[in-house]
Amino acid sequence: EGGPGGGGGGGDVLKQTLDAMKRPRKKEVSTREKEELVQEFLYQMDRAAAEDARLRKAGAPATRRLQRLDLMVVTLGKKTIQSTLLDFDLLGVVKKWLEPGAPEGE
Fold this sequence. Notes:
By secondary structure, this protein is mainly α. It has 6 helices and no strands. The chain has one domain. The chain has helices at about 10-20, 30-55, 65, 70-75, 80-85, 90-100. InterPro entries: RNAPII_TF_IWS1, TFIIS/LEDGF_dom_sf.
């Protein structure tokens, strides 16, 4: 169900890249690094929405998006990647986050 690698270690890479972006004077983040960060971030957001949909369907509390909310706020506040986020369909993923009532696939 969780796919290869299972445990979600991608969050560590995402956090490291975000931490690197906090100090832009020390290290300039390349376009490729920004794209990789954005893709991983959007994947995690999309996965959280899908997990919440499955949990709702099973009658369980859907808290995956809440668990990732702080990361979402920090990431969306990074001016250096905002255009990259939009290029990689940020709005489509945010739409899934804001539609808690509809089960996945409807």
